[in-house]
Amino acid sequence: MGIEIERKFLVQNDSWKQQAPAGLVCRQGYLVSDHDKTVRIRVIGDKAFLTIKGATYGLSRSEFEYEIPVFDAEDMLQLCGNPVEKTRYRIEHEGMTWELDVFSGENEGLVMAEIELESEDQRFDLPEWVGDEVTGDIRYYNAFLSKHPFKAWG
């Protein structure tokens, strides 16, 4: 079984842009989304994935991800509700890879960064552009954003 251990943060300034390589446009939707599981379809760049995630316990949850044909993913996205659109940047910092997402569409204005860890107690250094931690705050889960877009938060 695959396990994802992840921490999420808001991004507090644009200084990350000095380090960022080109980003990849990402569109994703959810076939299933409830408190203990999600089934996601994602097209990022020229690849597509089906991802199944279990409930979160602490910082960890089960995760299974499979590459699928882009053509199939595009059709499956039509079965989903509102897609989440963003550009993803992979930024190296102190030997760790951060994934920084600049949201667009109905979630425009939201910028988040996440880091995947080997263990829940793994130490890492925060880049200067990292702000408040939102790990565990359901409002910042992409599945939640697909139903409750950031622009509508008021």
Summary?
Helices cover 9% and strands 50% of the residues.
List the helices and strands and how they pair.
Blueprint: E1 3-11, E2 24-34, E3 37-44, E4 47-57, E5 60-68, H1 70-77, E6 84-93, E7 96-104, E8 111-116, E9 130-133, H2 142-147
Antiparallel strand pairs: 1-5, 1-8, 1-9, 2-3, 2-6, 3-4, 4-5, 6-7, 7-8
Descriptive keywords:
154 residues; mainly beta; Hypothetical Protein Pfu-838710-001; 8-stranded antiparallel beta barrel; 50% strand; globular
How would you describe this structure to a colleague?
The chain has 154 residues and is mainly beta. It has a single domain (3-152), classed as Hypothetical Protein Pfu-838710-001 (Beta Barrel), CATH 2.40.320.10. The protein is 9% helix and 50% strand. The chain has 2 helices and 9 strands. The protein has an 8-stranded antiparallel β-barrel. The radius of gyration is 15 Å and the shape is globular. The termini are far apart. The mean pLDDT is 95.
Biggest sheet strand order reads 1-5-4-3-2-6-7-8
Q: What percent of residues adopt helix (DSSP H or I)? A: under 10%
Low-confidence stretches: none
Number of domains: 1
Structural class: mainly beta
Distance between the termini: 39 Å
CATH architecture assignment name: Beta Barrel
Would you report the number of β strands? Answer: 9
* Number of helical regions: 2
The named CATH superfamily: Hypothetical Protein Pfu-838710-001
CATH topology, anyone? Hypothetical Protein Pfu-838710-001
